Amino acid sequence: MSQRGDERIMNRAARKPVVALIRSPGHYGGVRDALKLIEEEVAKDIKGKRRIFIKPNFVSTSRQLAVTHVDAVRAILDVISKYSPGKIIIGEGPPDGSLTEALSNFGYLKLEEEYDVDFVDLNHDGYVEVEGFDSSLRPLKFRFSKSVVNSDYRISVAKPKTHDAVIVTLSVKNMVVGSLIEHDKSKIHQGTKAINLNIAKIYRAVAPNLSILDGFEGMEGVGPVSGNPVNLRIAAASLHPVSLDAVMSEIMGFNPLDIGYLYYLNIWGIDTADLNQIEVIGFPPDEVARKFEPHPSYQEQLKWR
């Protein structure tokens, strides 16, 4: 991690974390309206950035419920294009098929016609190595996309889903695990304790500058691919990804400090997952909360401590 990157995270952690939360009229409108609540801060944050990376979630190449809707990305593009002339890259590396297939199936190819964007297949990108842990907590290196690591500004856009290893998958996990090259996505699964430590430790290298959760529709049960839809009808955005994920975890019915990687990021002081230290603007979380059915392995996933 560069000194500049460490300073950026520490400076961000020193600010009061704000999470924008709204009722969503749809994938586009929800993300747009959530970003409007923090648009002034986003405009200042993105100013002067020349290489902007947007990371949607394509954990499947065929099931729309499991992936980031294209209209959520379209809303982000409409907002950020007003404040930065930088090159915009949309990157992902699907674990179960080709990026081209996913882009076609989910309507992303239209974005090339509407905006000046490039697509990057993270599975076939150059890489840098970042050290994490194996199942015995010994050092183990993982390969991360250079396009992600070397970007000036990173945006994570995901949807709220339950998960088969770390309870929930939201904006932090989308960026960290999704930035891994090819088989390293499965390699990071080194057991319940190690995967949570890995996500938290590696976060410094690829931390999002801006995170958005399109909760118009979520997923519960056997996530992150085969679960059932949840008509959550909300959207949220923040310059504090850990705080954003903490608020969304609460909305989904989970204690954010029961989620290993959020717990570590919180106690390490990288950002806060303490709900008492987070300012939510828009709607109070308890007004939009909807308890999600956890993954069947939920009790085992709690054994990361």
Please characterize this protein's 3D structure.
The chain is of the alpha/beta class. The protein has one domain (3-299): LarA, N-terminal domain (Rossmann fold, 3-Layer(aba) Sandwich). The protein is built from 14 helices and 14 strands. The strands form four sheets. An eight-stranded mixed beta sheet has the order 4-3-2-7-10-13-1-14, with helices on both faces. Strands 5-6 form a two-stranded antiparallel ribbon. It has a two-stranded antiparallel sheet with strand order 8-9. The longest helix is centred in the middle third of the chain and has 15 residues, at 192-206. It is globular, with a radius of gyration of 17 Å.
Instruction: Report the β-strand fraction as a percent range.
Output: 15-25%
CATH superfamily: LarA, N-terminal domain
Query: If you compute it from the alpha carbons, what radius of gyration comes out, rounded to the nearest whole angstrom?
Result: 17 Å
Helicity, as a percent range:
25-40%
Largest sheet: 8 strands, mixed
Report how far apart the termini are: 26 Å
With strands numbered from the N-terminus, the spatial order across the biggest sheet is 4-3-2-7-10-13-1-14
So what's the overall shape? globular
What is the CATH top level name?
A: Alpha Beta
Report the strand count.
14
Secondary-structure class: alpha/beta
- Low-confidence spans: none
Number of helices: 14
Q: Which topology does CATH recognise?
A: Rossmann fold
Total domains:
1
Order of helices and strands: HEHHEHEHHEEEHEEEHHHEEEEHHEHH
CATH architecture descriptor? 3-Layer(aba) Sandwich
Global mean pLDDT: 94
